[in-house]
């Protein structure tokens, strides 16, 4: 194993004080109750060793981390040509929930699948005749990746659904421009459930390991994601995974990673390991502030930057 438990515990205690510089997300009311001082990390190596430190059993919702998972699913269902006819491949310097570029960019499609507009367009493509069928496909895919039976946090999903008026407006705009089809409320129900999928950092590290292993589950040896799709997902993690600070993150850390407003970060060090982090105190753009510190220290120590 590359990291001993004590060594990881030491890193967590070094990073934890940075949490006091951040704030938990408040725009989804149910996330307000999270403890800003929680911090947890897990590393899952491709030879199937797992280690963890901090509050590793605490569950949290995936939020935007789920965007990578749905992207992998629809890319395998429809292929790049179809998916990228609806959503672009370019980073944006705007916040994750911005509507600005949808109107100014021609053709009027979301710039990438990691911003909310792009993720909503991707979720709209999940296969299934009913919302329930789509949900089951998604959660089964996640279960295969984690090797666990995971579910979603109903309170968080409901809380987001009640307050998701910005996402609602993005959907109506995209429906008008033919980017999405079908009933907007049904799409929001599915999207808020997807964002509310709940797990701990150990499960998250396992998912990161599947991407790090080019889509092959290191535990079962099964291909869960094709090599090409895993490559596309990791590329988006590098260019857009940490929102409008993805550039700075690439320089300071250099690990393909995706964050969420609940404070989760999934990292994938190609050929080496998956990383799962939970630290709900966020910086101004929505990334876990202590989580970023942890990743910086890890990357430095192990020379894990891919650049
Ligand atoms: O749609 C939203 O706003 C949330 N469900 C997810 C946003 C998110 O996690 C952005 N993360 N940094």
UniProtKB/TrEMBL annotation:
The organism's place on the tree of life at top rank: Bacteria
Broad class of enzyme this protein falls into: hydrolase
EC number: 3.5.1.2
Keywords: Hydrolase
Protein name: Glutaminase A
């Amino acid at each position: 194993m590359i990291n001993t438990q004590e060594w990881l515990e030491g890193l967590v205690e070094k990073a934890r004080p940075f949490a006091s510089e951040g704030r938990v997300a408040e725009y989804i009311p149910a996330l307000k109750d999270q403890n800003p001082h929680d911090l947890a990390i897990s590393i899952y190596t491709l030879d199937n060793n797992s280690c963890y430190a901090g509050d590793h059993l605490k569950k949290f919702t995936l939020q935007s981390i789920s965007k990578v998972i749905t992207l992998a699913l629809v890319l395998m269902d429809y292929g790049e040509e179809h998916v990228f006819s609806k959503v672009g491949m370019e980073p944006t310097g705007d916040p994750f929930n911005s509507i600005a570029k949808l109107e100014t960019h021609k053709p009027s499609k979301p710039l990438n699948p990691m911003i909310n507009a792009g993720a909503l367009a991707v979720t709209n493509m999940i296969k299934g005749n009913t919302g329930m069928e789509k949900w089951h496909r998604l959660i089964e895919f996640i279960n295969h990746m984690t090797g666990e039976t995971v579910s979603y946090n109903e309170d968080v999903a409901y809380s987001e659904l009640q307050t998701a008026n910005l996402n609602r407006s993005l959907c109506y705009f995209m429906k008008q421009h033919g980017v999405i089809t079908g009933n907007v409320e049904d799409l929001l129900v599915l999207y808020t459930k997807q964002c509310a999928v709940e797990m701990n950092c150990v499960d998250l590290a396992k998912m990161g390991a599947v991407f790090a292993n080019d889509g092959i589950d290191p535990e079962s040896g099964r291909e869960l994601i094709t090599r090409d799709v895993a490559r596309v997902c990791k590329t988006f993690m590098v260019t857009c995974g940490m929102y409008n600070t993805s550039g700075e993150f690439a320089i300071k850390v250099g690990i393909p990673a995706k964050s969420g407003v609940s404070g989760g970060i999934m990292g994938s060090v190609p050929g080496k390991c998956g990383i799962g982090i939970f630290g709900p105190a966020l910086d101004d753009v929505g990334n876990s502030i202590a989580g970023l510190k942890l990743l910086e220290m890890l990357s430095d120590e192990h020379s894990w930057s891919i650049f």
